[in-house]
Sequence to fold (552 residues):
Amino acid sequence: MAKQNMVVETPPGSLFYGNGYVYINIESSYDPSVKYTRSKRLCIGKNIDDKTMYANKNYISMFAKDSLPDAPERSDLLSMGTPLFLKKAASDSGLDSALLAVFDADEANLILDLAAYTLSEETDAFQHFPVYGFHTALMSDSVVSDSTISRFLRETIKPSSVQHFLDEWSEQNAGKGRAYLCYDSTNINCVAEGVSLAEMGYAKDDPSKPQVNLEYVVRQEDGLPLIYKDYPGSIVDVTQCSDMIETIKSLGYHDIVAICDRGYISKDNLIDFDNSGIGFLLLLKASDATKDLIAKYGKKIRLRSEAYIEDHDLYGFTVRHRLFGNSGPCRYLHIIWSQEIADKERRFIMKTVSLIEKSLAKMVKKGTHLSIQKEKEFRKYFDIEIFPRTRKIKSYERNSKAIDSAIELEGFHILASSGEMTCSEAIDAYSKRDCVEKTFRALKTNTGMDTLRGHSNANIDGRFFILFIASIFRSIVFHSSRSLRIKDRKNYTVSAIVKELNKIEAVIDYKTGQYSRRYKLTAKQKAMLSCLVLSESDVDEYAKSITSSYKS
Fold:
C-alpha cells in the first residue's frame, strides 16, 4: 500500500492557500448566470517549500500511480520499546559479550533478534520473522529471509559453538559463596522424520509420540538459566543426572547446592554428588522407608507447637538418618507437615472411600462380578469377601484402620540435604525451585516449544539455542520487574511488559529521513523502562541509532 505524506515535487499549476495546503483545479465550467468560470479544486497535500510538498492520497491517486517508490526494507513506523529493553538487558548481563566471544557481530545480532522475536511474538515459527523485522527495530542491519534463518540454525549454530558459548556464559556468571542451582528436565514431542534424538520415552504430554528431552540448570536467586542440554527421549531422568552433575561441577562456583525433584533420587546419583563435591537438596519419593520415618516422627511434628515453623506456616524438624538402609552416610532429613495439604488429602480419601462404597453396593445389588484389578483397588480401604467361583461379592466392610493409617500419612513430605541446614532453610530453598519449572512452562506456553518444528538434529539444536537465549531474556525481564508486581501482578507479567513496550514506536520524518519517537511515554512504560535504568532520552537516542542503521 502506498504511503501518504511522502515528499514529492509540487505539480505545475498548484494553488497555495494561507493554511499551507496545496490545491489543484480538476474541473472548470462557465456559469452564464454569474458570467464567470467556476473551478472545482482538490487538496493534494501540504506545502514544504517552493518546490516540494507532502503528498496525500489524492496526489497519489492523480499523479503517482505509475511512479510510486519501491517498497522500503522496513516500515516507516517501527516498534522499538522491546528491542531497546532487550538490547540493554543483553549489554547489562554480558549476554552480548558472551555471544561475541563465539560468533561474529552479524551472527550475534541475528541470534539476539531471533530470541527477541521468540519472546515478543511467543513463537519459534521463524518463517514469520521477515514480517516481524519489517515492523520492528532490529539489532541486525537488515531483515533476513526465513530460508536464511533455517540455514543459519543448521550451519552456524554448531554444537561446538553452543558449548563454547555456555562455557563463556557460565564463567561470566560464576560467583563466590554458596549458590543454589535448580536442575530439572522436560520432554517435547516430536514426530518429524530425520530427528534421531526423538525416541519413545516417558512423555508427560503425549506418551504415544516420540520425544526429545531437555534439561536446564537455573540459578535460584534470580531465575537466570546457566546451562542446558538436550538428549534422546528414551533416557530417564535418574540416568541422565550423573552427566549433569559433571556439567554443574564445571560451572565455576565454589559452593554449589543442587536442588532437584524426586525423579533424580538414586543411591548412585547421591554418591556422584558426594564425589563431585556438590551438595544437594532433594525431595524424597514416597516409599516404605519414608512411611516408616513418618510413622516414627509424625506424632512429634503434627500440630506440635515446638515443631511449628512460623515463616512458612508449616510443622517440621530435622533428623540425621541414612537413606538406603544401613549403608551410606547419614543425611539431613527435613520432615515437614502441612495442615492445609493434610486436610485436602483427607477429604479426597474420604470421598474416594464413599465412591468405592457406592460402587460395591451397586455391584452387590446387581450381582456383578468383581475383577481382580478392581478388587486390588478396593481392598486398599475395604475388607471384601468374594465367592471364589463367580467372583461375586459376598460382603464388604470399611477397613477403618487402613483408612486412618492412610490419612495419618497425608500432609507429609521429606527433604534430604547433604549438608546441615535447618528445616526452615530447607523449605525456603526448595520452595524457590519452581524457577526452573516456570522456565519450562514459559518456553512451552509462550514460545511454542510444546512441539518441535525442526526436521533435522542440526535444526533442532539451533532452535534449542535460540530458545535458551530467549529464556535468558525472559528471566531478566521477570527479575528486573519484580518490584512492579508487588502492587500489580496482572499488568506486569513478562507478556504484559513486552506487549506494552511494543507500543513504543519510532516514526520516520519524510523531510529528513530520520526516525524519532512518535508519542509521549506513558507512566506504565516509564516504570517498565526504569527497571533497567532506561529513560526517555535513552529512547530518543535509540531512535537515532535506528536512523543511522536503516538510512539508505
